[in-house]
Write a structure and sequence with these properties.
The structure is a homotetramer. Chain A is mostly helical. Chain A has two domains: 55 residues, Arc Repressor Mutant, subunit A (Orthogonal Bundle), CATH 1.10.10; 105 residues, Tetracycline Repressor, domain 2 (Orthogonal Bundle). Helices cover 65% and strands 0% of the residues of chain A. In chain A, helix 4 packs parallel to helix 7. Chains in contact: A-B, C-D. Chains C and D meet through helix 6, helix 7, helix 9 and helix 10 of C and helix 6, helix 7, helix 9 and helix 10 of D. Chain D binds a DNA duplex through helix 2 and helix 3.
Chain lengths: 191, 191, 191, 191
Amino acid sequence: MTTGRRGARRSETARVAILAATVRLFATRGYDHLSIEGIAAEAGVAKQTIYRWWPSKGPLIAECMLEGMLLPGRFVPRDTGDVRADLAAWLDAIFGFLIDPTGESIFRSLISAAAENVEVGVRLRDSLGAASSLVERLGRGVEAGQIPPDAPLQEVSEALVGAVIVRALSRTPLAPGDPERLVDAVIGVHR
Amino acid sequence: MTTGRRGARRSETARVAILAATVRLFATRGYDHLSIEGIAAEAGVAKQTIYRWWPSKGPLIAECMLEGMLLPGRFVPRDTGDVRADLAAWLDAIFGFLIDPTGESIFRSLISAAAENVEVGVRLRDSLGAASSLVERLGRGVEAGQIPPDAPLQEVSEALVGAVIVRALSRTPLAPGDPERLVDAVIGVHR
Amino acid sequence: MTTGRRGARRSETARVAILAATVRLFATRGYDHLSIEGIAAEAGVAKQTIYRWWPSKGPLIAECMLEGMLLPGRFVPRDTGDVRADLAAWLDAIFGFLIDPTGESIFRSLISAAAENVEVGVRLRDSLGAASSLVERLGRGVEAGQIPPDAPLQEVSEALVGAVIVRALSRTPLAPGDPERLVDAVIGVHR
Amino acid sequence: MTTGRRGARRSETARVAILAATVRLFATRGYDHLSIEGIAAEAGVAKQTIYRWWPSKGPLIAECMLEGMLLPGRFVPRDTGDVRADLAAWLDAIFGFLIDPTGESIFRSLISAAAENVEVGVRLRDSLGAASSLVERLGRGVEAGQIPPDAPLQEVSEALVGAVIVRALSRTPLAPGDPERLVDAVIGVHR
DNA sequence: TCCTAAGCGAGACGGTACGTCCGGTCTTTGC
DNA sequence: GCAAAGACCGGACGTACCGTCTCGCTTAGGA
């Protein structure tokens, strides 16, 4: 009949304060100048309270991402019936986020975090939609006859997300027409 | 009559020892567990000798890459006349390098380094061929009529390189047929 | 009509478990590596149960001493009629306890505790007999004409106890004849 | 021809600052509320600079004592020809130091430190003169016929020093005549 | 029989200090 | 003037305890 759980419960206040502080410092300092000690101070929390619930800063970032505190909206592509336009708009949204220096810094820091921590890597890919929403949109493009039926959709979406990452890593500024060209690169020009 | 340059010249021995030690530790410990102090000890060199010539570990890694000490061969795609086969072979070479845990660790660490340091980012992209050899090979594919003439080659190569990076970040193991599918994703299925 | 005392009474089980655990850890770790947290764990008790009844580890140690759990027998000198022999035997008993490394460690830790906490200091002095039994034995030595009638007995017993403490602090191993020499030092050689 | 020693020398400035800070904090906070971290902050020094030269706070205190920064003058007894008066004066000097709350606190902390660290224990005993100057003075008392020739001088001096320690541990305030009584306790009344 | 106060275990929390590692800078000596 | 050796200040690491607190349960009068 009993829950078997005695003692004080985990403080939601502390948890939220930690995540918020993490986001704040992550945006300003970047992933590897991010310190647990700094987060604790910023959050007004004891270091041990962080270590009690997260083994390191990797999973902490992952949880921030899960809560949608790092990337806006999860970048789900629209469906207006025109795949090419929808994907270009999706890329525009992402690059719009990257034009802001803060956004760009967060994004590159996320890549850094992903390189160190699988969990972050998977979540980053998924946040951009590579796992579900993007593939689904491509699937509807196939149904609409705008994409060849035997196109490897998973790989196409990986390539799209990858192109965004390459741009971020090489700090290549976005030129007009680039989103369309990237879409053309993966779903073909004349289809 | 002289240029006035007096005193000892930079020790090539020390320089090489430092680069070699960097590569060794980079492969085992990864980018951000890489320490200048550790490199100095491993190289049998004073810390100051490193700081005298490199401002931080980013450019140090960049120099290692320039010297071809981190990525093998620079991954130049062949030209057998069949673009699809050539690109698949190129991907096979890269993924072959990534199958080895050491290679995979180096690659992810490079991504991490790239996220911090533009120079590394650009060199990483170029080492994979995105800037020249890959685009050139795609160009010859266009000439051979295997790729539509108006395909955005720069973007195609970025998407290819990006796909590799996404795979590395999400630690997705390579399945048989994946290289071909990736190539199909960017140059079309039925061409 | 009643005092109005409601609720559960203090658990004797917990009290005894705490004192026993304290003695155990005190002997092995020493006074200032002794932690309330460690005692609680060792005793299978909640920390708060300790803090409810003792303000700090000083009084906890004092209570252990009061219960006779730390020093054996309270070191009461015998009375065979020969003061010199009786005091030497008393010293032998104490030094016998100090020869054992555990006993020596306990004794030094008690000195440490005494330096921090008056209560412990007084109890330590009394446990060795300086306040009552030792002075009484000296008094009977005076009556028997073995000690000059105007000897300051209180000070003599302090000096004796003090000599033991000095030996413990400087870890001077006991040589044969030392107890007799110490007795001679305070009650004279030829009396 | 060479000394074989390269690199910067130990900073005397830092060493002295550390010792001074230690003395300052030792006097105010006592031995076991003394923290390496606090000393470093007080001295304006990095923690590592302390750990580089001292393994723990015990030897640090010992060095302070060696430098005469903790106990004044080393308490060497005078020689006016009258042992009893000289020893009483020596006790007066010590108890005079103990009347001051700061002095008393330092002394008790030293006992605490001595209980933990042999080196401190030996130095504390020696600082009070038990090893040399006190025994020598007693020796001259024997030559002058004021002390029986077969009195165990080493033990007598230990008993004297011990009596002081017992007083300190039990916080017994000094009454008039106490120094004389203590001297009488160890060198006899009517000799 | 309920009510209520207290004891108790468990354990989270804000803190302080631990002892270690490394970042960069500086000094000393030798080549 | 470069390079080794290495001391130095600073800052973060991850761990151990501090003393306080909250929680759910048990114990035992008083209503």
